[in-house]
Write a structure and sequence with these properties.
Helices cover 47% and strands 11% of the residues. It has 22 helices and 11 strands. The protein has helices spanning 47-53, 59-70, 83-93, 115-125, 134-143, 151-158, 160-167, 171-185, 212-216, 224-239, 257-270, 286-296, 314-321, 336-340, 343-347, 362-374, 386-394, 401-410, 414-423, 428-442, 449-455, 460-472, and strands at residues 6-11, 26-31, 74-75, 106-109, 127-130, 189-190, 245-250, 275-278, 301-304, 329-334, 351-356. The strands form 3 sheets. A 6-stranded mixed β-sheet has the order 6-8-9-10-7-11. The chain has a 3-stranded parallel β-sheet with strand order 3-4-5. A two-stranded parallel ribbon has the order 1-2. Helix 10 packs across helix 11 (257-270). It is globular.
Length: 473
Amino acid sequence: NKSSQKYKILKFPRDEYQEVDKSLETIQFVYLNGKLPCEPNELIFSRKQYATNSNSLQPLYHQFVNDYATTTTIFLGTAIDEPIFEQYIAARETRNSNITEHRPQSFLIDPFISPARESLLKTLYNIECIKATTLEFSNWLYENSDYFLDREETLKITFPALADLYTQSSERTINEYGRYFNEFSSGFKKVNLFGVPKSKSKNFLLGTSPSWNDIYNNLDASRKITTQIFDAVEYSILNEPDAIKLFTLLGSAGCGKSTILKRLSLQLSQNGRTVFFSYSEYIPDYESIVQTINSLKQSVVLVFDNADLMLLQLPKLIEELHKCNFPPKIIISTRTNVFDRLTSKLESIVSLVEFKTPNLDRDEIIEVINKLSENNLLGNLKGLSELMRIKEFENRSKKQILVAMREATKGESFDNIIKSEYGDIVPSEARFLTACIALTTEAGFTVTKQDFVGFSDVTPAETLFSLKEIYMM
């Protein structure tokens, strides 16, 4: 209900930037130049105040420009000619003529914009001018409001994890547990058993982390360990319904844990289980996890991929999960040496089952080769017999699956492959940004588009162009 939304006011100079409420329960209003009533020095109004404040960093202005670089923006009540405003836009948004535009299109509502100014805003800032007054635009919004998405429909696009919880809950449940749903959905996403594959990308077979689209497209080779864990989890759900159980998938980086975990989660979901998947450095507060699970009135499966960052919280989390009316089953993947330090603490509070990610056996190697062949990615293996292809993999079977696959198809050492591919990235700024992403994800953290823009010293337009070039490589 749009009328039930609350307002969050941020104003210069007292307030710092705050994250937008992804649940859309609260609408954020930001007053970049201050808001009456206030003290005289808490406004930017006179020429002297504009001059004074242009010499120091204004966090709200700075964040606005970063938001504008990645989000469609509608400008109302401004001609975009305020000195500070223009300064921040010009400093961070100018686009060189040889850079393809990848910023989302924005709009300026102004009845008096000149043709020259209109052309400048379009060329430099990707802002389309609409000659209308604010009142005319407001009336248009009102007249066409029936065509706009409501809050729940919008959440399906902007925050699908939360929308899923709302969809399967009654209004009474939402009223009682809604405050917990928002927090829970910030760290967990329900696995969609009806996922529709989008256009197939071969990046997964070239070494990128598996996406859900890769799993829905069946780009992964089947692993026997997946079936073993599936059978163990199903047995526990059927025969130990009142007990929390922790299943761990251990192995080194690059051994295929994430792919196994995604495939396992989808299979459990397709078998009628409610599965929530987390690949996030953020763990919701324990009360929200417990209350959300209680609201579902069923035993669920919580899956933590790349769990290194949350392992220290795991003992306390499990203790809290004992409060659930329907105790969940927990599956985590992590590196063996990291998990070993916690084993003694966990064994005293939860039933624990460990699985170690094995090397590829011959049947799995044949499956990988078939996937590469189906997607025309055999590389140096193409001219070899089936037995020779298998031998190429078996010679590298003790290496990480990514390393084995890349070395077998390229015929070079993995270090040389990576060094060559990194050196081929141009320009140098794109190479730097690639390193930033690699280091961040290696540490277990995710990277948003806004984070990516923040990494760079060049304009957001150039940074987003580099992102497109990196993605297409």
